[in-house]
Amino acid sequence: MDRSVIILSSLVAGSRVGGGVSAAVLTRARFTPEHVPTVIFGRHPGLGAPGGGAVPDAVFAGALDGLLAHGAHIRSSAILTGYFASAEQVRAAALFIEAAKAANPGIFVLIDPICGDGVADGTADGLYVKRETAEAIAARLVPLADLITPNAFELAFLTGRPVTDTASARTAAHTLAKPVLVTSVPEGTDRLAVLLTDGQTSCSASVDRLEGVPHGTGDLLAALALVARLDGDTGNELCQHVTRTCERVIRASLDARSHDLLLGALEHAKPAGPVQSSRPVLGLDGCKAGWVGVLLREGAPPELHLFATLTDALEMAERPAIIAIDIPIGFEGTPSGPGRECERLVRKLLKGRASSVFSSPLRAALAATSHAEAIALNRSAGGPGLSAQSFALFKKLREVDAALTPDMSARVFETHPEAGFALLKGAPMAHNKKTPEGREERLALLARHGIGPHLLDPHPFPKTRCAPDDVLDAAMCALTARRIANGEAMSLPPDPPLDACGLPMRIVL
Which top EC class applies here (predicted)? Predict the structure, then answer.
């Protein structure tokens, strides 16, 4: 194979959209684009009458036949599909891809299922192609994809599932049984997420929701994703790269007040290292006084806070964009095993320290006012007995459960500090956190990641209000919150189930 890529998409002469964007991105990355247009327009239809029109179905199919006769499908590295003007074009493209895969099994196929935008509720109300064209894309092209790059609306249309946040996007994407890079996923009121999932693992990145964004950003992201994938990037590396590169181009275009994407901003667009969020983030752990928090802000030293209630933390003046908390969020009605799935998965990561992962009570047990009643209610719902240590957390569990709603799941995340420490170290910690050796071990690890011992040592609070290990755990939660904000975190499980209140049952690390 050589570094040529076949593009099946629109050609819009006067606007930086469609196959023209794809070709520009590929050329900059030293690939050779071979573009078969589906339409030839003078400008984007969103700007007014575009001029030109659709390439006749027979002409489009004939051009693909010419590529096959020329052997382009055998030597090419990839095929990228975008906008189609008719269902017949889609069918011709599917036949071409099938022939290419038969002759060249290593060819990579990226399907950008361009068909609409709008409210991602799984209906066709936002389609801007004929419904039969959109249905042909879903039926004929999506099964042939090695990577699919829908926006939130398109993912909802393809799967018939609403996409309202990253959790629902992940659930919908998994039904396609293909790697999916979905864009424009709502993350609160002022952020949008890009989510990459392959059914086993997932990662995400997020950007500010901006007004007046030029057309063509979806075409740009799909082409960047293809280049990154062909150059060997996968997973979080790919997700972060394409997201921050798109954001750079968008901001450069807005700063220049350009109606088109300024593709010159692609130059030097892959800086080393992860993108760093400028948003404040907060790590929280329960303590005798209420909650202890560590706040991280770009360009400022870490801060310690004590909160009487969780609501005080959620509404603090700094308004942290991401909060990672060491407390269960979401409760099963009936047991799926020894604890929730997320707890079972984290135990596997903590060999030798799996006992630090407590099994959450079933939801019915939360109403208990005594340890004996909690045991009885948990057992009556099909669960096991509960330890006194577990029952001691019930006040905090009820407080969190009362404060959180499903629309807060893009801001507040359950985490597990011991698993977070193990992730940073590459292995479970050697000593118990309550021992002097365990404290020193964790202080040293936190210091290597920017939370120096001067903040935590000597212990800054009376032990009657906050234990030393509570502060260590809050600091680790803060580092996890920063990972979440930077799109570097992982969710266990990748596709978390929702409890009866709509809260995702996941542990994020």
Answer: transferase
